[in-house]
Amino acid sequence: MTSLRLALVLTLVLAACGDPETVDTTTTTPASTTSEATTTTPAETPTTGAETTTTAGVTTTTAPLYLVPIPWEFPAVFGASGDPHGSGCVVAGGVLPDGLWFGYAEAVGGGVITFDLACYFTGAAAEAAATADGAEAFDNYIRNQNPMTFPVPISPLAQVFYIDATPSDAGFFPQPIAVASWPTAASYLPCPGELCGVWLYVNGGQATGVVEMFQP
């Protein structure tokens, strides 16, 4: 009986020693979890680049505005030295583009001004232009060699200034007047007409400003 008990004990011991092997093989399953590998999805979303490509603020352009300054100031030379004042006097085509132009209001009616474009020079540019035309220049010189006229619609909100026939001690300076009341018989200039010199402020194809120019 003793030998049989010893054999049984040895058998149980051997069986017990084999159990840890089976436990080790089953404990490897936690290492096979791939939840950490799936966390790479947030790094693959490049949608934030769409906001940086918005070009609405860059592509929007604002057209230049030619506004009547208050108080009025004589226009500067927009081009190079020697050019006429304002936007000049060279226009391609039959439509007067946006700009600040000098010329004569030959007719006004039906919300339209018939504008005879001319060149207004001062200083050394006036002397050079007058010499080229075989004329004499003083402080200024006006060149009006192009017979073309431009019909320009007058904006109902246009700023209009006329030269008062009875000026103050300050001299002949433009005075504001309602667009519906211009031309006026109170003006020093015979407007409209060939001697009605004006500065025309054109924006969006309309005359948004008309300023009579005193010429001694």
Short description:
This protein is of the alpha+beta class. It has 4 helices and 7 strands; from the N terminus they run αααββαβββββ. The chain has a 5-stranded mixed beta barrel with strand order 1-2-4-7-6.
List keywords for this structure.
5-stranded mixed barrel, globular, 4 helices
Number of helices: 4
Q: Determine the fraction of residues in helical runs and give it as a percent range.
A: 10-25%
The overall pLDDT, averaged over residues, is 79
For the biggest sheet, the summary is: 5 strands, mixed, barrel
Extended strand count: 7
Unreliable sequence segments:
1-55
Question: Can you write the helix and strand succession as a string?
Answer: HHHEEHEEEEE
Spatial order of the strands in the main sheet?
Answer: 1-2-4-7-6
Distance between the termini: 149 Å
Strand content: 25-35%
* Global Rg: 44 Å
Shape summary:
globular
Helical/strand content category: alpha+beta
Describe the model.
A hairpin with a 2-residue loop joins strand 6 and strand 7. The protein is of the alpha+beta class. 20% of the residues lie in helices and 27% in strands. The protein has helices spanning 2-26, 49-52, 56-59, 123-132; strands at residues 99-109, 112-122, 140-143, 149-163, 174-177, 197-203, 206-212. The protein has a domain at 99-118 and 148-212. It is built from four helices and seven strands. It is globular and about 40 Å long. Strands 1-2-4-7-6 form a five-stranded mixed β-barrel.
